[in-house]
Design brief:
With about 250 residues, the chain is an alpha+beta fold. Helices cover about 45% and strands about 10% of the residues. The protein contains nine helices and six strands; from the N terminus they run E-E-E-E-H-E-E-H-H-H-H-H-H-H-H. The protein has a four-stranded mixed β-sheet with strand order 1-5-6-4. A two-stranded antiparallel sheet has the order 2-3. Strand 5 (about 75-80) and strand 6 (about 85-95) form a beta hairpin. Helix 1 (about 60-70) crosses helix 2, helix 3 crosses helix 4 and helix 6 packs across helix 8. The longest helix has about 35 residues, at about 110-140. The radius of gyration is 26 Å and the shape is elongated.
Length: about 250
């Protein structure tokens, strides 16, 4: 089992959903759907004195919070994500009575919480519009030759909340010059060159970037100089023989 180095903050016992068939090192029961590691030995919930708890999957923040608040004993349940190389939270184990009380509380104020969520959603949407407008203005300031509608489209794509794209990074939120250039370069790469076709045909990412680098830099140079005719898709012959690229931003 992988090291629990990236697990959520410890606020009680930690329970694991194993990826492999594991048996309890004490009672030999199994295979286990949930286990607790004690001194390197897997134990079932009963042997770990957690068998009386019930599982509450993640997803309802209010229900989870209230259940844990009302439960004298609770545990976080995690599972290892091989692709991301980390443990991810799956839910919690709580006392059944605490879960029942939490469900009653959530039903009682469900309408009020729904209204609050709607207000929060409107506030976030307004914040996103303001940020996207500011990002688009920075693109136009840095690349005056970039058409206004194109600048806005790049800003929208780069600044989607929760996307992990450059616009949502710390540098992007600060509207740093590096983040703006990275977003524009990525957009030109995918929209104005055969980069995506190269990848689909089996060309490695680094080689594809090498081939299109001259076309990308030519478009950026034209936009920097105020050439509003730049940005059309470049022919394949022009990009096949280019030199190495100049940036490594995502996209």
């Amino acid at each position: 089992m992988a090291t629990l180095a990236t697990t959520p903050p410890r606020t009680g016992p930690l329970v694991v959903q194993p990826l492999k068939r594991r048996h309890c090192g004490e009672c030999r029961g199994g295979p286990l759907s949930l286990l607790v590691m004690e001194e390197g030995v897997p134990r079932c919930l009963d042997c770990a004195d957690l068998g009386h708890l019930v599982f509450l999957p993640r997803g309802d923040t209010a229900l989870t919070r209230r259940s844990r608040e009302g439960s004298g004993l609770s545990a976080v349940v995690v599972r290892f994500n091989r692709r991301r190389g980390r443990y991810e939270r799956q839910g919690v184990l709580v006392e059944e009575a605490a879960l029942a009380r939490a469900e009653e509380r959530c039903l009682a104020d469900a309408e009020a919480r729904q209204r609050r969520r709607a207000r929060d959603a409107r506030r976030r949407a307004a914040e996103d519009v303001r940020f996207t407008d500011a990002f688009a203005r920075e693109i136009r300031r840095r690349f005056p030759g970039c058409p206004a509608d194109r600048a806005y489209a790049i800003a929208v794509h780069a600044s989607v909340r929760g996307s992990g794209r450059v616009g949502r990074s710390a540098a992007g939120r600060a509207l740093s010059d590096a983040a703006v250039v990275a977003a524009v370069r990525a957009a030109v790469r995918h929209t104005d060159t055969p980069y995506d076709q190269f990848l689909m045909s089996g060309v490695t990412r680094h080689e594809a970037r090498r081939r299109i680098a001259p076309a990308v830099e030519a478009t950026l140079a034209g936009w920097c100089a105020g050439d509003r005719t730049g940005g059309g898709r470049t022919g394949g012959g022009r990009v096949e023989s280019g030199g190495p690229g100049t940036a490594r931003e995502a996209g």
